[in-house]
Amino acid sequence: MTISFPRSLRLQDFDLRRIRGVSQAKALYRFIAGYRVIYLAALAALAISGFARSQFATVIRRFTDDVLLAQNFKDLHWYGLAFLGLAGVAGTCTFWGSRQAARTAEGAVRRLRVFLYDHLQHLPFARHDHMQSGDLIQRSSSDVEEVRRLLAEHFTGVGRIFTISSMAFLAMFDLHARLALVSAVVIPISVFVSTRFWRHLAQIFFDFQDQEARLSSLLQENLYGARVVRAFARERHEIGRFEAANATLRHRGRRMVRFHNIYWPSMDLLLATQMVGSLMLGSWMAVQGEISVGTYLAFVSLLSLMIGPIRHLGRIFALSTQSLVSLDRIRTIIEERREPLHAGDHVPESPLQGDIRYENVSFAYDVPASDTAEGRRPPAVLHDISFTAAPGQIVAILGSTGSGKTSVMNLLLRFYDASAGHIYLDGVDLTRYPRAALRRHIGIVQQDPFLFGRTIRENIRYGAAQEVSEEEIQNAARAANIHDSVMSFPKGYDTIVGEQGVTLSGGQRQRLAIARTILKDPKILILDDATSAVDAETERFIRDALQQLMQGRTTFIIAHRISSIATADKILVMDGGRIVQAGAHAELAAQAGLYRQVFQLQTSIEAELTEELAAAGKPPPPNGLAPGLQVQRDSG
Amino acid sequence: MSAGLYVEEEEFSASFSGPALMRLLKLVLNYRGYVAGYVVGVIGLVAMEGIHIYLGKRILDEGVIPGDFAHVQQLLILWGLVSVALAGFVALFIFCAGSVGQAINYDLRKAMFGRLQELSLSYYDKTPVGWIMARATSDSRRVSELVSFGFLDFFWGATSVVVFLGFMMWLNWRLALVMLFIVPVMVGAALLFQKHILGQWREVRRLNSRITGSYAESIQGVRVTKSLGREQANLTEFSGLATEMYSASYKAAWLSALFLPVIQVIAAVAVSAVIYVGGQQYAQGFMTVGAIQAFIQYLFWMLFPIQEMARVYAQIQQAVASGERIFALIDSIPEIQDQPGAKTQVSLRGDIEFKHIHFAYEPSNPVLTNFTLHVEEGETVALVGPTGAGKSTVVNLLCRFYEPQTGLIEIAGQEVRSMTLHALHSRIGMVLQTPYLFSGSLTENLRYGRLEATDAEVREAAELVGADEFIRHFPQGYDTDVGEGGALLSVGQKQLISMARAVLAHPDIFIMDEATSSVDTLTEAKIQAAMQTLLSSTTSFVIAHRLSTIRNADKILVIRNGGISEMGNHANLIRARGYYYDLYRKQYRDEASRDTDPFFGSKLTYA
Asked: Is this structure's pTM higher than 0.80?
């Protein structure tokens, strides 16, 4: 990895795959690898801070006994300074400890973010097919944030409460053991009560959030359906629906208020009971002379230091539980296996020829039962696919949805591997090529290509392995017939594509993808050749751009209409995962079969149209053929 | 889901708006009872805390030091009673503040939703749904938090400082004067500090939305990444972003961590002063041991309220900005409103007249210029033409979703502006190209057309458009839930439902905007037959691609370049050999291929 880290980022190369298959506690332990010492030191600092704060009581005790009651004022300033000194130590330790905890949390989470990002782009395509992108985004954003909170806030929160309470207890124990033990009675009780209460609140809160989400989707529906609401004059009806959900939300919100309404006062009363009991005992001892007045005072101040923070434990426990669920959700992604990009022994030294041979290739997807249950169509299966494509040839694949066209091409890219048979590229078995090297040589142009939300320049440069100059980018754009359109934008090549910038038309997007592929300069090309959605002029532009691109490359055209592929060197007609016919247009048109059937259909449609127009009262058009069929290939 | 859903947090001006803050305060005053409750609760709470500490002083001075345990017992009983009162005040203020918060959140959402129902469609064209959603969710929540616990905490903090200083004054005014000097420093430092911290956290949130955006893009574009072999380059880029995030959030975190120690150290300076000055005062007989102890306690009990005050102070600006945006939404004035005295009951049976209409969505880009059209009662008018030429605009104007800049529209001799929007829309049935259903059952969606329709009528309408057949195939039939936005149905099914919904409304004018584009041919033929009676008796506007629909229309309008470029029936227009002639030929081929060519329209389905 060529990334340089700031000095404060330790061990960023730790491979998070090592938290696979271990218990949650162990996973957490490994998760902070490289930060363990710092994290422990941070907790120790918090403990020292707690200790310093508990020693305030000592200063107060001695101040009362040795100065005030002893009427000895000459050391007065030393007590003031001692107090200040302790506060200084406590403050410094708290700050340093929190700072180190933050460093651990942020560092470990940075590593997690980067790892997840990389992991997701390395998961095999089969996995991406079966995961909801919204869910993945949620896991890598809000769940990661939860884990950050766990480390930065919840763990240190528990640590802080624990150290302060226990240091106060120890200091108190040191003053008077019996008094300390009696005063600690409330601790287990309040931990128990607090934990129970907050577990209950978590449920109430969940209901509240649930209703909040429902209200949001109601509103969203109303906004998207604004036209329908207006068209049917249903505004009042909608207000009624919203009102009901809104009132429910208010009701649930009030339930949360009621909970806090019970929790905090009862906790206050519980602690007050302990205070009264302890004070009673303490003052009695002081009156009896068993403890000094100063000790009594120290005891009083330690008492609130010890039991005050306990109230917050339940809340932190409830939040931690939530965070741990998030951690598990992230771990299920980490458990997924990556596809090896660089495994393979054959890295071609000279440029590829682009000679492709499928030999009896069969393929079946490995579909988890849960996915088919959700109503997804199980992807096609391939049977016994064999064909060859010589360098520079154009091979068209024709077939209906589900016939297996996509799968044939997915195998070539090694998005999936064949279950039987072999694919050879330049005479070498495809599985011997490392995936990364292989994909460098294959370019895809889709009908509706995915562009990234960045500048046009970056989108064009996106696929190039090498450094490219501005001139090369513009040349590629010219070859793809998109340069003029780009220049018509006020910001030219710096125009940002997508939501934050300019919305491009389908034809423009397609041509940008062509420019991107020109720069990538692959030896093999896959064209999702659909131009039916664009107008005639755009279609011509795209066709010209594609002609440019196809020169000297082995090209596969995924075809949708016969009219656009009549000039291919070879046409594969697919049906039900098999190649049912193969050959050039003239051959196939002469053979009985699916191809000729469809071809004749086209011709008959033209005849019918002519008739129909004639019936409407005018002579037929001079040429009966559809424009698409007249396209000639202008280079061989 | 798209990357665009992750809209960056809106920036707001540095100075906050006084009027908006006043308006927020006024909102709170709608709940005077609760406000009174929470003022009483907070003052009571602070007073009880003050008394607690004072009782601690008396226990020490009057009981423990003189050795009078009976008196200690009396004072402790009093102490316990004060605790009960304190718990009561806590309950009171939580109840009141919580209720105000919930109530105001409810009110704001209600007011916004009500206003959104009145706003014209042009508002929706200009305003992204995400923006409105943010107003109704996060902004509304932020405002209600401010007006409930925010104001409360601020008030609590200020009251604590004042009341405890008062107690100190009473115990020993000389030492209290020293405190009067230190405490404001503490408060000032806390306020400044928190503002700074909040700014840093805002930076973190901004980066966080960029990170989420990156994830979204990477996941959605994974195929491109894989086929272009961009993994390493992407990783390097993302790694840079993650490091930026690390630096920003680390800084924010340690700044926050610095806050508390700094305040505590300032407080310790105050305690040292108490020890030093208080000791001298004691030596001179102006103070008791208990009073010194009480001073220290008062100082400690001020810390938390001051922290809270600072937190609220830092957030006020943001919450007021949220309030401003909400008010902007609530105050938006609908562009199209009912005129005074508009008729609430109308019949739209009669001729329709568009007179010299000029219309543009944006002034620089006119859609219709001097558009004039006469439609006789009962006619079926088909509108054809290129995308964006204004076909939908014609029907939008008829429905008064938009208003023409000049010119007027009359239905049955009455100007559309002379009737209420509700009256007009109740008599028009509209079927849209992108049929939108609401989550709920099929019956509920169908009944949207006429709320009082009986089950039998609902079924009849569904049968008429041929929806009954697929509905009965669902295990739950008419009670089947359609999912959010109708997501559980196919587009074709949604179109049928929205068609039935419009039929059920028994409209005087029927509008179909690409209504059956995703329905299969067989079903379409059935609908055609069924709709024939309806179309022949009702004035209808049809924007369609299907030749069968267009061919049978009484009038075909070709809308191009801001007006009608061709008009007539099918035969006339074919003979004219213009735009319609070309369109017809292209359409004919497409339709014929779609119906018969097994490969037509099948796509390479990449992720």
From this structure: no
